[in-house]
Design goal:
Strand content: under 5%
Low-confidence stretches: 608-624
Shape: globular
Structural class: mainly alpha
Strand order of the largest sheet: 1-2
Radius of gyration: 27 Å
Length: 689
């Protein structure tokens, strides 16, 4: 059953690409067909994933298709669990994409966007099911090509063109790292079958392979210092394509980390510490930069960096257990990381899908320009609200459950004997704890001041998501909220999916009772997300009831008082509190980390006729004539890009300039260089002889 379902799914995606390339984007119906075929193919892969997770592994021989040695797809419980998650989300994203493509308002419809999207889905399916190095790397490079197609869809903009090249460059770096690691393992075992590499014993080659696969998969996931492509690559993609990149495709990096933990086994201790600290730093920097962005697409993109760091930190707990020989701690890390993967994939897909409709309807993604957009686009606004609560890790969403598990896993350092591993867990735990607080600050800013704020005067928006888009958004919102209540069932399904790595019974120890969760260790702490869905609404209703009773009917009465000058409610125009102003304290307090650069200049007084006294430019604010203003500009600097990549680029540019000068030199000089080199070689040979 699994093999035919995968074949039908890949056939649907191929048919969709043919429709896109053959018929183009001339009509709304034609534009939507490839995405509907993508939804059908995703549904087939979802069914195949559920079947594979709950049944025995299946091997599909595809040697005749490639003709290069023995090639195969193998779908076991781990592959099945990832197929279930990723293509369950892909069904909803495809429906949103079909709705987005149907409308002409604000959409950038180009040939090959659907092809890039369908190539992405097919590549993800093949990567998750690949049984040998050739098939895996072939699909990995196809995924990089699909990323390039999607990020270059609006290539008329120079900024978007640069984003496409950055995305492709990091993708090639990721592929090169994996290729080298696979060649080392294949050379030692004389086999391209991934499962056979488990025979590689401890040693320098084993450690080198661990480093290369971690670098390769972390580059795709967006871990520091490889995260620079995400804040520019995701916003460059059109509409719901961002959801496919962040919520579906990026998680193949997670799958690779999980798979190679089963293949390579115990990692070196120093690598475990690096993974823990890299995850903590990635999470902290990601949410820190998300909190100060002025564009909504960049806020969500940097949030992806944050969640990549949290996932990697929890994976570091699993590596700690593997390095220390503690199977229980390994299970704790894997369960926490897997729950975080589910939460990130669902919430990020919901955020980017709703953002696609918001940006198309409003024509911008500037936070201050979008004020009150949730009141005008109710379906997209409600979906983004649920996603934002989950991304902030607030109860009763799935994000709260997963981040609770991660923090509980990081508190287990007292069970270890080695000081280095204990310090690594403690440092990562402190960074993740700080990250969770900043996440609430970042998304409260977006929800309170942008989606739920008072609409700006004259603000207009086009239509909201269509019927198919609403179905997709509702499905993703149910994932953000419903999976929290169904967390015990989710853990049971994860126990099946993680069975190739750790025993199923060990994972089920995360269930203290049928409806109560614990971090595998008995008696450490407990949580019942299902009960929260009952307790929190009842508590809210009780508080509202008591407030209404105590106020004697005055609770809902409107009171009008003089507003504070910078208040949110009651103040309009330039004196109102903005999303930029809300983030200013964070910019100032953490200016050294953010690398904030502030510039000030004095704007000349405005005359009574509306002209300034110096250069004739209009004053930035409506002000009384004759009053001067100080204009302050703050620019946040990306430290990794500025101090690492730009420094390297300057060195490379100088080398290229030197090589260019050599290219255009004198022929006589080149002959003299060759003669001199020949003389030196003859002298060296004579001396050595």
């Amino acid at each position: 059953m699994t093999g035919p379902l995968i074949a039908v799914a890949l056939g649907c995606m191929l048919a969709g690409a043919v429709v896109d390339l053959g018929l183009g984007t001339s009509s709304a119906a034609v534009r939507s067909v490839p995405y509907l075929l993508g939804a059908a193919g995703s549904a087939c892969l979802l069914a195949a994933g559920v079947h594979a997770t709950l049944s025995s592994p299946v091997t599909i021989d595809i040697t005749s298709l490639f003709g290069v040695g023995r090639s195969a797809l193998r779908v076991d419980a781990l592959s099945g669990s990832f197929l279930t998650l990723l293509f369950g989300i892909s069904v909803a994203v495809s429906l949103c994409f079909a709705s987005w493509a149907w409308s002409d308002v604000g959409r950038a419809h180009r040939r090959a966007v659907a092809t890039g999207y369908l190539t992405l889905l097919a590549s993800v399916a093949v990567i998750v099911c690949a049984a040998d190095a050739f098939v895996f790397l072939f699909a990995w490079e196809a995924l990089t090509v699909s990323f390039y197609l999607l990020t270059s869809a609006q290539r008329g903009d120079a900024e978007r063109a640069g984003a496409a090249w950055a995305t492709a460059g990091i993708g090639k770096l990721s592929g090169a790292s994996l290729l080298l690691g696979f060649l080392l393992l294949a050379g030692r075992t004389h086999s391209f079958a991934i499962a056979s590499w488990s025979a590689v014993g401890p040693g320098a080659l084993h450690d080198a392979a661990w480093v290369l696969v971690v670098v390769g998969f972390c580059a795709k996931l967006g871990v520091v210092p490889f995260q620079v492509w995400i804040p520019v690559g995701y916003p460059a993609a059109p509409g719901p394509a961002r959801a496919a990149m962040a919520g579906v495709a990026a998680n193949v990096g997670v799958y690779g980390l999980w798979r190679f933990l089963a293949v390579l086994g115990r990692p070196p201790v120093w690598l475990v510490i690096v993974v823990l600290l890299a995850g903590g730093v990635t999470a902290f920097l990601g949410i820190l930069f998300a909190g100060v962005q002025s564009r909504l697409s960049r806020v969500v993109a940097y949030s992806s960096v944050e969640h990549a760091g949290i996932i990697l930190t929890a994976y570091g707990v699993a590596l700690t257990g593997a390095a220390a020989g503690s199977r229980t701690l390994e299970v704790v890390g894997l369960v926490a990381a897997s729950l975080q993967v589910v939460a990130h994939a669902v919430a990020k897909s919901a955020a980017f899908c709703s953002l696609g409709f918001v940006e198309a309807g409003a024509g911008t993604d500037d936070l201050d320009a979008l004020r009150g957009v949730g009141r005008r686009l109710r379906w997209s606004g409600a979906a983004f609200g649920a996603a934002a609560l989950a991304l902030a890790g607030l109860p009763p969403t799935v994000g709260f459950v997963s981040e609770w598990f991660v923090l509980e896993a990081l508190m287990q350092q007292f069970r270890l004997g080695g000081l280095a591993l204990r310090l690594g867990l403690a440092g990562a735990g402190a960074l993740v704890a700080l990250t969770t607080g900043l996440a609430a600050l970042a998304f409260i800013r977006v929800l309170g001041l942008t989606f739920l704020g008072r609409p700006a005067p004259g603000g207009t928006t086009a239509g909201d998501a269509g019927p198919l888009g609403r179905i997709g958004l509702v499905a993703l919102v149910l994932g953000c909220l419903g999976l929290a209540a169904a967390s015990p069932w989710e853990v049971r399904f994860l126990a099946e999916g993680l069975s190739p790595l750790v025993p199923r019974r060990a994972t089920l120890r995360a269930l203290k009772s049928p409806w109560v969760l614990q971090p595998v260790y008995h008696g450490f702490s407990i949580l019942s997300p299902s009960w929260l869905w009952i307790a929190l609404p009842v508590a809210c209703a009780g508080v509202l009831g008591l407030a209404a009773l105590a106020s004697r009917g005055r609770f809902l009465r409107i009171r009008r008082v003089p507003a504070w000058h910078s208040a949110t409610a009651g103040v309009a125009g330039p004196s109102s509190y903005t999303a930029f102003g809300f983030a200013n304290p964070l910019r100032h307090v953490l200016a050294n980390v953010l690398g904030a650069e502030r510039t000030r200049r004095l704007r000349p007084p405005v005359s009574s006729d509306g002209r300034s006294g110096a250069d004739g430019s209009a004053s930035p604010r409506a002000a009384a004539p004759g009053v001067a203003h100080v204009e302050s500009t703050t620019r946040v600097v990306e430290p990794v890009e500025t101090y690492l990549y730009q420094s390297v680029w300057r060195v490379v540019s100088k080398l290229v300039d030197a090589a260019r000068r050599l290219q255009s030199g004198s022929l006589n000089a080149y002959v003299a260089y060759m003669l001199g080199a020949l003389v030196v070689a003859l002298v060296v040979v004579a001396v050595l002889g």
